[in-house]
Design a protein that fits this description.
79% helix, transport, disordered C terminus, single chain, Na+/solute_symporter_sf, mainly alpha, 21 helices, Na+/H+ antiporter like fold
Amino acid sequence: MLDLLENAWFALTDVLNPHGPAVNAATSYSPADYSVHFFLQLAVIILACRIVGWLGQKLFRQPQVVGEMIAGVVLGPSLLGLFFPDLQLAIFPKETRNVLYVGAQLGVGLYMFMVGLTLRLDHFQSKAKSAATVSAAGIAAPFLLAALITPFLLTVPGLFTDGISQANATLFMGACIALTAFPMLARIINENGLANSSLGTLSLTAGAFDDAASWCVLALVLATFGSGPGVAVIAIGGAVLYAGFMLIFGRKLLAPLGRAVEARGEMSTQVLAITMLLFCLSAFLMDAIGIHAIFGGFLIGVCMPRGLFVEELKRKVEPLAVVLLLPMFFTYSGLNTRIDMVNSIPLLLVAAGILVASVLAKFGACWAAARLSGEDNRTALGIGALMNSRGLMELIIINIGLQKGIIGPTLFSMLVLMAIITTVMATPLFEAVYGRKARETGELDQIDPRLATV
């Protein structure tokens, strides 16, 4: 049996790397080789996400999305690469990851477009004060705590790059702590049947503002690392101008698409093509100015017509985005993650301190802000639990910090641990403080079950 498995492994290796290990990477991969890897990678990703997601649901009552995040880490160097490095490298060679990256961006951008379609602007208008208060607290408290802990972190060797200023280090840490896992938050809200609720809308809106602010702060930090001040000006100014234009004029300009669907009774391929074109252009614009494609997808989704248009578009697009494309996003981020870098007691204590500070700054501050703005205690606790999730948006921003020379591998690993723990704790914490009671009282029965993802 072992001989059979060994022969199968060598055969698979020959297929995945027909040119042999000695061939230069620039010449060893033809378009056909990329295709072979891509389809195998997709198959492995879907299988791993379904299995881990199912186990998470059955054993730990975690939503599918959390299982997919963990599956991404499992497929990376932290687990599969640690125990079976040759197998992991054969399936996900570094030369093919750019292709996976493109699919990952399409998946997460398209999913956030779907999330924008379900955003209830009437709920936002009725909860504008609460959303603004929660968002402000979710930004101010993390930056305040970052200012308190960063001077100590700068004294620990290897956390930050030598020569980084205290101001830049503080801004980066503040952005990392303030970040809310916007795609993760949206998926958890959908899977709990809250996408059409007041609490879900408030949390999504505050999370969107907090993430946008974190990306703007990151742009400011990057501007001092060789990119120039133009990066920050274009990112922040462009995002504000585009968001303002879309929120003021977008719904009126896009209304003919909704009328066309209502008149026909279904969405034609012509309307679908136009809609996808507009989504791509919006995602491109936000990516090009230095924010992120997901905000472009989310923003144009918010401005799309409601009614039958949304129902038809979700029916045609959402299953493909959720099952096939979005898992690529989690896996790509997991391939860049290592959780074995924190390997001593002092470093574990530092990592624990960062985790505690992050939870206090996000969960505690958002709960207090919601209470001060008039929400009842149970709703405020639910908002705090949701806003505390970091997810793989955190991995995106810290990967940028690592690549740009802002942080070192050790701090990167600590922030990865913080992202995983705060995400895993989000659903059970939310259930304990809000979800269980809401189901007992029937508050969630008003939610359209079609809004919940698989």
